[in-house]
Design goal:
The structure holds 2 protein chains of 2 kinds.
Chain A: E1 5-14, E2 23-33, H1 38-51, E3 74-75, E4 78-79, E5 101-105, E6 114-116, E7 119-120, H2 123-130, H3 152-162, H4 169-173, H5 180-191, H6 200-213, H7 224-228, H8 236-251
Parallel strand pairs in A: 1-5
Antiparallel strand pairs in A: 1-2, 3-4, 3-5, 6-7
Helix pairs in contact in A: 2-6, 3-5, 5-6, 5-8, 6-8
Chain B: H1 14-21, H2 27-30, E1 34-38, H3 42-54, E2 57-61, E3 79-80, H4 92-102, H5 109-129, E4 154-155, H6 161-178, E5 182-185, E6 188-196, E7 199-207, E8 213-217, E9 220-223, H7 244-251, E10 256-257, E11 262-268, E12 291-295, E13 312-313, H8 315-319, H9 329-341, E14 353-356, H10 358-372, H11 380-406, E15 415-424, E16 427-428, E17 441-443, H12 461-481, H13 495-514, E18 518-519, H14 520-534, H15 541-561, E19 562-563, H16 573-597, H17 621-624, E20 626-634, E21 637-644
Helix pairs in contact in B: 3-6, 3-12, 4-5, 5-12, 10-11, 14-15, 14-16, 15-16
The chains are: A alpha+beta, B alpha/beta.
């Protein structure tokens, strides 16, 4: 790849804490290498801010290889920036050119309150999992792993759904801040496997109920979630969730 | 004296004997006992969930925003288990033997055999939890090979095995949280162990959102806080991975085992410049199908695809015909370094070798698919097209990741790879029950000095983390807590909690009051450079002595000139990082000391003074057949204790993969 350097203007959301009013600040960064990752560009900026005696920008990040789901920047109006099927940490600066202005905001959703600058609180996702995103099996002596064959196609579909990293880009992209792609990925992952079948009905009902309680919005099928998902979770999972949910509602004994 | 508490009896009966004879805690009493778990990776999440299921009251802590993000999630290739589903001669004994040999005879036989025994339970447990392992068309589980073995015993979920296993453990953990058996404290960092009457009885944790210090009591404390590869600054670890929890325990009396045993992983994306913040692994599983080579001609200016077959040096296949590209990691890393140092490296920096998939893509996968479709004389383009589909299914996410980082398409051109720090075999010294030298303080997973000796085999870290958490600690902790059922929870206004919190608070105040000129990051980078150059892939006495002096000077400079912006009572990532780097600096000195003391080569520890004529690691069993356990005695002062290793079943020989 051809290597080049660039100068950029950054407009970054700064907010001291959950209760204070935030605003955009403008920064100039120089001599940014096209081989850097987007977060390494932020590292450079933060080092400069520290050097100038200013407060660095707080942002979530950890593995920097696109799998932990911690990074969460809304870049030029799109979660995780311009590349398809990508996380912020894997976005590289060759996506930009000299002189560009880049606007960076935190995820915006009522259910994801800002903690500081670009850092938000996504604990609502953990509580949704607590509502039923598991198989009720204790550590012990289950049957041999090969005792129950699983159709390869279904196993592959379950894996594709289980690849969700819980980053919340789907919520950030949705005009309603719906978490349905996240919820449907977990419901699908477990419903597609024989091991998850016994609890499939209560799981769908309870996870959706918790999602509503957390203040996520409704799904209106615009598909923005799927378009930005770094792991390409398909919205067919939402269709599966809808059928799981409807069936569970119909069959529920305690109406 | 160090007592490893290995049960008596024949090797294959030790664990069964232990389980049949250890003390138990009855269900009513379990509810009265509280356990603290620090870290929520595979070891921590599996331990916290399993102990919650048993009825203990568990508090689990992680610095990330959710327990699901712990760095186990980044593990790619797979998890070993002695299932022998492939009918290729695998057994518990083989897995045990491969692990001992792979670790260059520097691990305990008893622990390793137990690990091999419970490996089979792990796979059953994970499948029951809904972990979507790769399957064959018949619906049964699939396997692949990893380095240092001649069987296929690795279970996997594409290149995301760690993620899927961690999500399984995380879901079990969240279920226990919903049931009220476990309380998870995310965005919390453990900064001190509280010891009362010689027993670990709690921790001081900092809430990373508010900056407040909190006191938490526990009848026992489990450290599942991972490894310390980030002491090198550049590693494949997550940015937040740190040694702090283990280091605090070390300074409170827990011995540190084999600190210099570091794993340098052979296949990582090379460094591209000074801005680099971390390195990315390309899974060892790629060596199933990727062939490693360099040009036979020095400084060959041609593009890799323009270099004809006969002008390529497949140096692993040449040097190690029996294992070929699947030699253990330490061997593969040194071989890459040897070629690059000799001037055969590729890429702009010349610090890289090729990992090439074309041969197997065409000949292995392309031909198999063509046969299935009944195409008898396929042309190369057809083979490439068909092979690509299979390769994509096996390694797709890794290839995508490579392309995003480098801008090159590995389906078309070979990957460029180079070794990078990946894992630390060293860690807190623990006995058979996983207890450190502090009573009631345990270390699990990568945080302990583990079962991997001087070199870990691929796909064994996930196995060990889950073995410790799901199947070992639930038994061994009962053996300790059975004597503690009458102990009431100690109120956190106890003087030991007061003193521990004050020590933490004083240290934070000191850090914030330095108000120097240099950033935390700049110190971390300098430490990493010293470690990589003098305590990295090759080490010698002179370099290590220099490194110790340099690190001491760096520590002084850090404590007089570090600049930490912001306040204490708020979210302050620079302050979090400063505490971790301060601990890394101290650890770095101990690593060099340990490497200097061990004047032999073994596994990943390569002392230039001790090598065979062919440049292989040369052990010195007469002098160093022991695990080094270092006791902290004060600043820059440690005392060495030796745990002699005895090999009754796997007799030590010169490791050979030829």
């Amino acid at each position: 790849m051809e290597h080049y350097t660039m100068n950029l203007t950054l407009k970054v959301w700064r907010q001291k804490n959950a209760t204070s009013q935030g605003s955009f600040e403008t920064y100039q960064v120089r001599n940014i290498s096209s081989e850097m990752s987007f977060l390494e560009m932020f590292d450079v900026l933060n080092e400069e801010l520290i050097h100038e005696g200013k407060e660095p920008i707080a942002f979530d990040h950890d593995c920097r290889e696109g799998i932990c789901g911690m990074c969460s920047m809304y870049i030029n109006g799109r979660p995780h920036g311009p590349w398809e099927a990508n996380t912020t940490c894997q976005l590289h600066m060759r996506a930009f050119k000299d002189g560009d202005t880049i606007v960076v905001e935190p995820w915006r959703a009522n259910a994801f309150p800002v903690i500081k600058d670009l850092t938000v609180d996504r604990s609502a996702f953990d509580r949704i999992i607590q509502a039923g995103g598991y198989i009720s099996v204790n550590t012990g002596s289950p049957v041999d792993a090969n005792a129950i064959p699983v159709e390869k196609e279904k196993a592959d579909m379950a894996f594709a759904a289980a690849a969700c990293i819980g980053c919340g880009a789907c919520v950030a992209a949705c005009k309603n801040s719906s978490a349905l792609l996240f919820v449907s990925a977990k419901v699908s992952h477990l419903a597609l496997l024989p091991q998850g079948a016994p609890e499939r009905r209560t799981r769908a009902l309870n996870m959706v109920a918790q999602m509503d309680k957390e203040g996520f919005g409704s799904c209106t099928n615009t598909g923005a979630c799927e378009a930005v998902c770094p792991k390409e979770i398909s919205i067919t999972n939402i269709a599966r969730l809808n059928s799981e949910f409807t069936l569970a509602g119909l069959l529920s004994s305690n109406k | 004296m160090l007592d490893s508490k290995i049960p008596a009896g024949p090797l294959e009966e030790k664990w069964t004997y232990y389980k049949g004879h250890c003390k138990l805690v009855n269900p009513a009493n379990k509810r009265k006992l509280e356990i603290i778990v620090v870290g929520t990776g595979l070891a921590g999440a599996s331990a916290a969930a399993s102990l919650g299921e048993l009825g203990y009251k568990v508090k689990a802590f992680c610095f990330q925003d959710s327990p699901r993000r712990a760095h186990s999630i980044a593990a790619q290739g797979g998890i070993n288990a002695a299932k022998n589903y492939q009918n290729d001669g695998d057994s518990v004994f083989r897995l045990f033997y491969d692990t001992i040999k792979g670790g260059d005879y520097r691990a305990r036989e008893g622990n390793v055999h137990r690990l091999a025994e419970v490996s089979v339970n792990i796979i059953d447990q994970c499948v029951a939890q809904g972990v979507p392992f790769a399957r064959e068309y018949g619906g049964l589980l699939n396997n692949r090979s990893f380095g240092g073995t001649q069987v296929k015993r690795t279970f996997y979920a594409a290149g995301q095995t760690g993620q899927q296993l961690l999500i399984g453990a995380y879901q079990a953990l969240e279920r226990q949280e919903a049931l009220g058996n476990v309380q998870v404290y995310s965005r919390h960092e453990m900064l001190e162990v509280v010891i009362i009457d010689g027993k670990a009885r709690g921790i001081i944790a900092r809430n990373l959102v508010t900056g407040k210090l909190e006191r938490h009591f526990g009848h026992a404390v489990l450290l599942c806080s991972g490894g310390y590869g980030n002491v090198f600054y550049l590693s494949t670890n997550a940015m937040g991975s740190n040694v702090t929890a283990a280091w605090k325990a070390h300074k409170q009396g827990a011995y540190f085992g084999n600190p210099c045993f570091t794993q340098i992983h052979p296949t990582c994306i090379p460094v591209s410049g000074d801005h680099q913040s971390k390195l990315t692994l390309m899974s060892e599983s790629l060596r199933n199908d990727g062939r490693i080579w360099v040009p036979k001609q020095k400084n060959d200016p041609r593009k890799p695809n323009d270099i004809p077959e006969e002008e390529r040096d497949y140096y692993l296949e040449r040097r190690y015909p029996a294992f070929g590209n699947l030699v253990p990691r330490d061997v593969a890393s040194r071989a890459a370094k040897e070629r690059c140092d000799a001037g055969y490296g590729v890429g702009t920096t010349k610090q890289a070798v090729y990992l090439d998939f074309r041969f197997n893509l065409i000949n292995k996968y392309g031909r198999a698919e063509a046969n299935k479709l009944g195409i008898h004389n396929p042309d190369e383009a057809t083979l490439v097209r068909l092979g690509k589909e299979v390769v994509k299914e096996e390694y797709g996410n890794l290839f995508d990741m490579y392309e995003k980082i480098t801008g090159e398409n590995p389906y078309e051109v070979p990957m460029r790879i180079y070794p990078a720090v990946h894992y630390t075999m060293g860690g807190l010294w623990v006995d058979y029950e996983l207890m450190t030298t502090v009573k009631g303080l345990y270390a699990l997973g990568e945080a302990n000095f583990s079962d991997h000796g001087a070199n870990r085999l691929g796909a064994s870290a996930l196995m060990q983390g889950l073995a410790d958490g799901y199947f070992v600690i639930p038994y061994t902790i009962g053996n300790y807590l059975a004597d503690d059922i009458a102990t009431k929870p100690i109120p956190t206004n106890h003087e030991a909690f007061e003193a521990a919190e004050k020590a933490v608070s004083d240290r934070i105040n000191t850090l914030m009051s330095i108000k120097g000129k240099q950033s935390v990051e700049s110190f971390h980078k300098r430490l990493g450079k010293i470690m990589w150059e003098k305590c990295g892939m090759a080490r010698n006495a002179q370099g290590l002595q220099e490194a110790i002096q340099e690190i001491r000077a760096l520590r002084k400079e850090f404590w007089s000139d570090v600049r930490i912006p912001g306040e204490i009572a708020e979210m302050n990532p620079e302050l979090d990082k400063a505490g971790r780097v301060a601990d890394f600096i101290e650890l770095g000195e101990l690593m060099c000391l340990d490497a200097l003391n061990r004047n032999e080569s073994c596994g990943g520890h390569f002392r230039e003074e001790s090598q065979t004529e062919e440049g292989e690691a040369k052990r010195d069993d007469s002098q160093y057949m022991y695990a080094a356990a270092w006791e902290f005695k004060g600043e820059s002062n440690w005392e060495l204790h030796k745990e002699n290793l005895e090999f009754e079943v796997a007799k030590p020989t010169q490791r050979s993969y030829k």
